[in-house]
Write a structure and sequence with these properties.
403 residues; five-stranded mixed beta sheet; single chain; alpha/beta; five-stranded parallel beta sheet; 41% helix
Length: 403
């Protein structure tokens, strides 16, 4: 590869680096062991993966050390006519020790690519990002044994408080929250009017790009949805145009009806598909960060079955897809979204959510009572429109501090 060509890529990288803000870092930045030789980061579009990569580079490599680093994105038109392995070799031969590869799912045989880089360029550290639909397939030279894999979510309400108003709050564990929620709430409420901020977060705060698009977030999110289904799903699962159309229709139909205990047979007839294909589309929407599926047990990706309840992934996306989003559904969606990052959430016989097979939660407005779960041990209410709780009645917004 001509040195001039790799310098073109490098100039693009440096321009991006110079314009990368350093005033706010996502939660995952502090969880990654950046010294590992092969790191994978997947997550839905718009959650901030690219910014996190560039922030890490900007913070960790200074002066001449920056010459050892290259960032590339495989959605760049450059790679329509150039082989990425040629770029890697040129960077390696020029003393490169780190390469950051964004949007790796644009490369059809991305797992083979990573294995080849790992085998053929000793001492080269690789960090890559990709769609949340990425699945590591076991096989020869299994990547799962070579790499550290991380998954990024959208902004938690805790992160939104810092991103929006500079209010710094450490992550709170679930048990700590349940036992000390009054003290935690009083501390935060002494710094800001929390309920208006929480309503703004629900409406547009899950995706960090909201600050850039202002009033156009609905249009941007619809574009993100199209990109996930038309591009990511098509590339990673090799599906045809008919399946893509049906998957879009499934999302729109479900977004108008959630949460529900779905009549899947009726849905399959409406989509003109069968059970096997319908379940594959449903779980693809979950993998793509567009739906959350709640069941009474953990579903294996090899043994797909009908979920007990279906939700849109987060309140911000729900507002964008369904202009008549019902507040009760928004509340449950927020709770499920924030808890599912680190906790096992299941569909219980009574109440709304069974968390970690132990704690039972009912979600509702400030006047919600324990009537439905009054005889259940370890039962709690997560209530909206409430700044400070009492006993086992916990303000809903506090569950946004868990990551």
């Amino acid at each position: 590869m001509a040195e001039l060509e790799i310098e073109t890529l490098r100039r693009t990288f440096i321009r991006k680096l110079m314009n990368t803000p350093m005033d706010f870092f996502r939660y995952l930045n502090y969880k990654i062991e950046w010294k590992d030789s092969l790191i994978g980061i997947k997550g839905p579009k718009g959650c901030g993966k690219t910014t996190m990569l560039l922030q890490h580079i900007k913070e960790s490599f200074q002066g001449n050390d920056l010459d050892k680093v290259l960032y590339i994105s495989l959605d760049n038109l450059y790679f329509a006519s150039h082989d990425i392995l040629d770029v890697v070799e040129a960077h390696y031969n020029n003393g490169g020790t780190y390469i950051f590869i964004d949007e790796i799912h644009y490369y059809e045989k991305w797992q083979t690519l990573l294995k080849n880089i790992s085998d053929d360029f000793p001492g080269l550290n690789v960090v890559y990002t990709g769609s949340s639909m990425l699945q590591i397939q076991a096989g020869e030279g299994d990547l799962s044994r070579r790499q550290a894999m991380y998954e990024m979510r959208g902004l938690s309400f805790r992160e939104f408080l810092q991103f929006e108003q500079g209010i710094k709050q450490d992550v709170v564990g679930l048990e700590e929250l349940m036992h000390n929620h009054v003290e935690i709430a009083m501390n935060i409420c002494s710094q800001t009017a929390i309920l208006p901020l929480f309503k703004r977060y629900l409406k547009y705060g899950y995706y960090p790009f909201y600050k850039d698009v202002h009033n156009g977030i609905d249009v941007r999110l619809q574009a993100v949805v199209n990109q996930i289904i038309e591009n990511d799903y098509a590339k990673i699962d090799d599906v045809n145009l008919s399946t893509i159309r049906k998957t879009k229709k499934m999302l729109m139909v479900l977004s108008e009806r959630v949460p529900q205990q779905p009549n899947m047979s009726s849905l399959y007839r409406e989509l003109e598909t069968d059970r096997n294909q319908g379940l594959k589309m449903l779980y693809a929407l979950q993998r793509g960060g567009l739906l959350l599926l709640l069941g009474d047990n953990v579903k294996s990706s090899d043994n797909l079955s009908r979920p007990d309840k279906i939700y849109v992934n987060n309140p911000t996306l729900m507002y964008a897809l369904s202009p008549y989003a019902e507040i009760g559904t928004i509340r449950e969606t927020f709770f499920f979204n924030q808890l599912s990052e680190a906790h096992d959430c299941r569909y219980p016989k009574a109440g709304d959510f069974l968390v970690d097979k132990h704690y039972l939660f009912e979600v509702g407005g400030k006047n919600k009572t324990f009537d439905q779960i009054k005889d259940m041990p370890d039962s709690y209410l997560a209530v909206d429109d409430t700044e400070i709780g009492r006993g086992n009645k916990i303000p809903l917004w506090l569950f946004g501090l868990l990551y």
